[in-house]
Amino acid sequence: MAIPEQFEGLIVVKVGSSTLTADDGSVDESYISTLCEQVAELHALGHPVVVVTSGAAAAGRSRLGFASRPSDIPSLQACAAAGQAALTEAYAKELANRGIACGQVLLTRRDVVDREGYLNARNTLFRLLDLGAVPVVNENDTVSVAEFTFGDNDMLGAIVSALVGASLYVILSDVDGLYTADPTTHEDAELIRTVRVIDKRIARMAGGAGSSVGTGGMASKIRAARATLAAGVPLVICHGRKDHVLVDAVQGKGVGTLFCNDTSHVHGSGRKLWIGLAEVPHGSVVVDAGASRAIVADGASLLPVGVRSTSGTYEEGDVISIVDEQGTELARGVTRYSSDDMVRVRGLKLDVIERFLPSKEGQPAVHRDEMLVF
User: Fold this and answer.
1) Which among 86, 90, 89, 33 is positioned nearest to 61, based on CA atoms?
2) pLDDT of 124-170, one tens digit each?
3) DSSP 4
């Protein structure tokens, strides 16, 4: 499905818990007011905006009287329920003051792993945008279970960016961007302005856990960047508390760290994006160096001869991860073999396979048309 013309220039902005909550964990309404002012400015400039917001659990914790983050799932989900109300109230009030409506959209991964659900979520977002509203998206933490969580809202924002074909994804964080080292412990750490390829060197620069009120750190943002680059969406990570930073990022004024490559603004097919970003991998295969080069450099299908090993239990038609021998995930795709059959055919040429599995004559392990390469 092509992106409707009226949504060209669409911006997805994700704001983290540590950015939009006050020291006591309550919603910082003055910050939300500043953010909504920038959203209104972008609207006036012709940029539709989708806001992916964190902070529900942290805000609810304050409302329900918890002194610290609870450890049991029911209490966490209760905090999320109370916090969603607080966040929605705050966004709705500030946007309404600027003549803009908002609509709350709560998602779990279960909602988008199903192809029909993926398209329904997309249609809902587009309809809200068509009506001039700002969709405010968050993970539905009140009902989600571990198997179907996004893990953090950095990845949720990446999936939403791919889903709506965003022109830019902006992560408003509590750091200025990606540094060569942790700036809190290394005085000589330098801010990296542009990243075009996310290799092992870039991955090593990412830190670990985020703040005490969030679930994501720089590592989660790098994972999100890999996903958005594969989807053709450039990403900016910047400090969300700096004046006018969202508008400056959209206008290309060099704030934070920009992740972009030659595929940015060339959106992949909706099916490939769903395969690579929304669906949960059911297993994985490790491929040899030759297969890695063919997939990444040549855009080739994965043939069974290039598969070194397989893990997990999956059926034909499931999505699996494709990993190189160093453990780097290269791609995700729809397998044409079950895990049992993959054990039998790995390392074999197609003409050998068809002798004992005639139904698989000429079948690659994963066809390039059903694969998203990271």
Assistant:
1) 86
2) 999 999 999 999 998 875 555 444 345 568 888 988 998 888 999 99
3) P
pLDDT at 299: 87
Instruction: For residues 374 and 371, give the distance between their C-alpha atoms in angstroms, rounded to a whole number.
Output: 10
CA distances from residue 44 to 38, 131, 169, 248 in whole angstroms, order as listed: 10, 15, 19, 15
Could you give the CA distance from residue 241 to residue 296 in angstroms, rounded to a whole number? 38
Task: State the DSSP code for 269.
Answer: P
CB 85 within 8 A of CB 49: no
| Tokens matching residue 347 | 């390392």
Predicted confidence (pLDDT) at residue 301 exceeds the cutoff of 90? yes
Q: What domains does the chain contain, in order, with CATH numbers?
A: 5-271 (3.40.1160.10), 281-373 (2.30.130.10)
Rounded CA-CA distance 347/209 in Å is 39
Q: Distance (Å, rounded) from C-alpha 31 to C-alpha 19?
A: 8
Sheet arrangement for strand 283-287: 307-312, 283-287, 319-323, 329-335, 366-373
Report in angstroms the alpha-carbon separations of 315 from 147, 151, 328, 345: 18, 25, 23, 14
The CA-atom distances, in angstroms, between 47 and each of 4, 10, 28, 132, 159 are 13, 5, 25, 11, 19
pLDDT tens-digit readout, 47-99? 999 999 988 887 788 788 887 778 888 888 888 888 888 888 899 999 999 99
